[in-house]
Write a structure and sequence with these properties.
The protein has 457 residues and is of the alpha/beta class. It folds into 2 domains: 171 residues, 3-Layer(aba) Sandwich (Rossmann fold), CATH 3.40.50.10140; 263 residues, no CATH class. Helix content is 35%, strand content 22%. The protein has 12 helices and 17 strands. The strands form 4 sheets. The protein has a 7-stranded mixed sheet with strand order 8-7-9-15-13-16-17, sandwiched between helices. The protein has a 5-stranded parallel sheet with strand order 2-1-3-4-5, with helices on both faces. Strand 1, helix 1 and strand 2 form a beta-alpha-beta unit. Helix 2 packs parallel to helix 3 and helix 9 crosses helix 12. The protein starts with 5 loop residues before the first strand and ends with a helix.
């Protein structure tokens, strides 16, 4: 039986002064094809200006670029490599060939076509007189920065080869994964791009472990024993899931900040706020959306007593009260576990539940001048750490839920997280459940029945 391979088109856009890099790019693609064709059932086809013959023997030379432009519009991967030149202009065109190719690829990104835009710039020497070609290259870099489009700078051809090989392997793997998942995650991860260049485009803000949970309080040198603040394990697992889903759709321009190191220009970034019972700044940010929010977080000094108020729509309905049953689950099973001394495998053999909010809002109150879209605020608001972990797990595993949302639409979901055997085992959307459901899930008889069934299976 003949094997069918999935084919990807890689378009290489280069002026003449990076001819060596163009040949390296072709060799890299050939190397990846040797590895991925049989193992992944996928191969790449290369298109570039120096190898494409005219479509007909009498086709005028100046029309070859028109054919190339058609290939750009259909490509899966657009590889841009620049140094000092920005290409030559054909008769009847105000832009160079390379510039026309870039414009088509950028337009595809704006229309949210699934295209991977990989751009590489050889490091330019310092100069007071750039010349018209180099000036246009520098202007393009600024343009890509404003749009949040990824690029890398390199000094040697060896460095370029290493970067491209790594980036193309990652790109091929992401294409081989579920196309549905890629599309669904793109529906969820939506970012606005401000006029003022800012990095990162997304700030992920997580709370650090509080001092009270870090050993003897009389240890004055506690911070000298650490390179950075501790992170709760559940938050760490959530961060792993967030990074995984962002990189899957080609987003690398994000950075992690703890609640103490929030940058002063945070208002120029899209923001993701984690574990709100431990984040006063995250709770303050929610207040920007009081007129559109379906939820309120009631924070108590004893964090185990914090709870959520939830309603199905921002207007016209009464709130229901949602409390976490996690403490009751732990107490019910704690008497049967050996909790003295170090961690042991038995401690993972428990079942537990928690609740969380998963939300996305457009920041309509921002006065930042935007190039595209609105800045977004994301909230992964678990009542306890398990809920935050589960919210990130939901993004990674229940991604099909996001297909129904438009890019400019707010997202607000109440989710229930179940933990078994040391991991999140399931997460459900319970946004439509009535008050009686949450009262029952917090009832000790229900919890004991769930624990009993778990330990007897």
């Amino acid at each position: 039986m003949q094997t069918t391979y999935q084919s990807l088109t890689a378009f290489i856009s280069t002026p003449k002064d990076v001819s060596r890099e163009r040949e390296i790019a072709k060799q890299v693609v050939e190397r990846i094809n040797l590895t991925c064709k049989e193992t992944l059932g996928l191969e790449m086809e290369i298109i570039s200006w120096d190898q494409l013959p005219p479509a007909a023997t009498k086709l005028p030379k100046e029309r070859i670029q028109d054919v190339l432009d058609q290939y750009v519009a259909k490509c899966n991967i657009f590889i841009l490599i620049l140094y000092k030149r920005y290409g030559t202009k054909e008769e009847g065109h105000s832009k160079s060939n390379t510039e026309r190719e870039v414009d088509i690829a950028v337009d595809l990104l704006k229309r949210e076509k699934k295209i991977m835009f990989l751009s590489y710039f050889r490091k330019l020497p310092p100069s007071d007189d750039y010349g018209p070609q180099e000036s246009r290259v520098r202007a393009l870099r600024k343009r890509l920065e404003k749009m949040g489009i990824w690029y890398k700078e390199y000094e040697t051809t060896e460095e370029f080869e290493h970067s491209l090989l790594h980036d193309l392997y990652r790109t091929v793997l992401s294409y081989r994964l579920s196309t549905t998942k890629h599309k669904a995650l793109k529906c969820f991860w939506q970012f606005g791009f401000p006029e003022r260049i800012t990095h990162p485009i997304l700030a992920v803000i997580y709370p650090t472990t509080e001092r009270i949970f870090m050993g003897p309080r009389d240890d004055a040198n506690v911070w000298l024993n650490r390179l950075g603040p501790n992170v709760v394990f559940e938050d760490f697992k959530a961060l792993e899931k967030i990074e995984k889903t962002l990189r899957l759709i080609g987003v690398s321009d994000f950075k992690l900040f703890n609640t103490v190191t929030i940058p002063p220009d945070i208002h120029l970034m899209n923001r993701l706020w984690m574990c709100l019972p431990h984040s006063t700044k995250g709770i303050a940010q929610i207040q920007r959306y009081e007129d559109r929010s379906c939820f309120r977080l009631i924070r108590k000094q004893d964090r185990t007593l914090s709870y959520l108020l939830w309603r199905r729509s921002p207007r016209g309905q009464k709130y229901i009260t949602v409390r976490s049953p996690l403490a009751k689950y732990l107490a019910e099973q704690g008497s049967h576990l050996n909790i003295a001394g170090e961690w042991n495998p038995e401690l993972s053999h428990i079942v537990a539940k928690d609740y969380a909010i998963l939300a996305r809002f457009r920041d309509l109150k921002s006065d930042v001048v935007m190039v595209d879209g609105f800045l977004k605020d994301y909230f992964l608001a678990g009542l306890r750490g398990l809920g935050t972990w589960g919210a990130a797990w939901f993004i990674d595993r229940k991604y099909d839920h996001f297909m129904r949302y438009r890019p400019d639409q707010d997202i607000q979901m109440l989710i229930e997280v179940e933990y078994r055997e040391g991991r999140v085992s399931d997460v459900r959307d319970v946004s439509a459940e009535p008050q009686s459901y949450f009262d029952q899930e917090n009832n000790l008889a229900t919890i004991r029945k769930t624990v009993k069934n778990y330990h007897h299976t």
